Amino acid sequence: MAYTVPKLKDFSPEAVDKAAGELLSALGNESVSVKSEADKKTFRDRWLARKDGILTQINDLWLKAAPKEAKREVGQGVNKLKAEVESKVEAALAKSAAAENESSVDISLPGIRRPIGAEHPIIRTQNEIVGVFKNLGYSVAEGPVIETDYYNFEALNFPPNHPARDTQDSLFLANQESKPRREQLLLRTHTSPVQIRTMEKLTPPLRIVIPGKVHRNDPPDASHSPMFHQIEGLAVDTNITFGDLKGTLDHAMKALFGSNVKTSFRPSFFPFTEPSAEMFVSCFICGGSGKRGADPCRPCKQTGWIEILGCGMVDPNVFEFVKHNGYDPEKISGFAFGMGVDRIAMLKYGLDDLQLFFQGDVRFLQQFG
Ligand code: 2NL
Hints:
The strands form 3 sheets. The chain has a 7-stranded mixed sheet with strand order 1-4-5-11-10-7-6, with helices on both faces. Helix 2 (about 35-50) runs antiparallel to helix 4 (about 70-105), helix 3 packs antiparallel against helix 4 (about 70-105) and helix 5 (about 120-135) crosses helix 10. The longest helix is centred in the N-terminal third of the chain and has 33 residues, at about 70-105. By secondary structure, it is of the alpha+beta class. The protein starts with 12 loop residues before the first helix and ends with a helix. The chain is about 40% helix and about 20% strand. 2-{3-[(4-chloropyridin-2-yl)amino]phenoxy}-N-methylacetamide binds near residues 273, 314 and 338.
């Protein structure tokens, strides 16, 4: 119930004091809920308005109504009470003004700029390559960057003493010596472990591409980095042939570098494919001539050809590790390929220093916005 000023029957100092106490306590309660500008006006008018505000009512109901002999003392009490009410109302109004300032926004301040970044040129190149294979119906698979020796080497047909298994070439995690070799952890040196992991999960036919970060123990220079990016692909089905490999990769290179590039395959070796090949594309800088005007073409070293990826038919020894999931090398076959995204991005953007990608210099990166 809202407080109303009572009429007094007893005008003794004690009775006036008691009524004053009740009035101040009502004022205290009401001042808590004063928040908005409208609240403030209502609150101020209720207590201080000259016409019928509570202070005016005190004057009428307590002072003017007091009998002659009590007037002096009631007057003193009422004056003291008026002063108190005025100062409490002012304090309540000031307090709610301060709270309002805290929560309000100063729209004259400059805004916070949140510049939109750009796709890193390596990721952009990666997405373009992955996109070409997606259009052919390939799925995208990803996997862990920290791998076991088993997935990174053993299941990929690397012999036990292959140099890549040495710490000279691969980055192993510390304190692994007590574990059996196949459980030892290292930073994956290629994305191939994800192919094995995917074949363990999905039965053939399978068509996947795997983009991701890989690590090797190489000191950084203009063409090396201990961290770089790879995209590998794998197609497994009945009757997959080297002709399928050539047709697929020839199409992919034309989609990436233009329909007039030519492709060429030269014999090579990888532990996980047999036969294996390196694929070259005719130089899309000089058009295959080896020359730029009178100058030698640098990206292809005047040969007219650029080595772009490694590939081959999946070695039956690799399928043996996932034979239990439908990959019987007597029944199915497959091709696989792997390419370095960073090197392709360098060729695409005409860079001669790989390190530019990793230094985070905005003057370099802004050119790709
Ligand atoms: C390169 C060569 C290659 C593969 C990667 C692969 C994976 C499995 C089985 C067979 Cl599970 N092969 N991957 C095959 C040939 C070449 O990469 O120069 N990469 C940068």
